Amino acid sequence: MTDRELLPDPMRGKPRLAMGPEDVARAPRESLASLLADLAALQTAVAARLAVAAAEDRGQAHGAGPDEMLTAELAARRTGMSRRQLYKRARAGELPFARRVSARSVRFSARGIERWLTQKSRA
To answer: To which H or E segment does residue 22 belong?
Structure first.
């Protein structure tokens, strides 16, 4: 839907969403789930872009330096998933950045999350 695209913000020259809270209030009920999914995808893309930018700022964009192994809580913040979703998908083998460090412990590769988010935002 074209009314969900990013438009330049005339006040700051930065992107902003074309829809506001008042548009959501008027949106048909049956379109809300789709809107929420679109916003989640946008949030993931923005998080990926921020992660890549942060890595570039640290000089770690292409593998320089050690990889940081994150707890589920930190990985959840970066991916936009809940801790429960992370553990479930890691157990199912769906997350290439999940690493089992012991029989009862899983950690998540920060660099792997960055790559995964970048790939998702391009898809």
So the answer is: helix 21-26
C-alpha pair distances (Å), 39 with each of 26, 51, 56, 95, 106: 17, 18, 26, 22, 28
DSSP string, 26-94: HS-GGGHHHHHHHHHHHHHHHHHHHHHHHHHHHT-TTS-SPPPEEPHHHHHHHHS--HHHHHHHHHTT-
CB–CB of 90/106 below 8 Å? yes
- Residue 60's alpha-carbon distances to 34, 55, 97, in angstroms, are 36, 5, 17
Give, as one character, the DSSP assignment of residue 101.
E
**pLDDT, tens only, 84-95:** 999 999 999 999
d(CA 1, CA 89) in angstroms, rounded, equals 30
Has this prediction a pTM greater than 0.90?
Answer: no
Distance CA 60, CA 7 (A): 31
How many CB atoms lie under 10 A from the CB of residue 90?
20
DSSP run (H or E) holding 116? helix 110-122
**32-58 vs 110-122: helix axis angle to the nearest 10?**
130
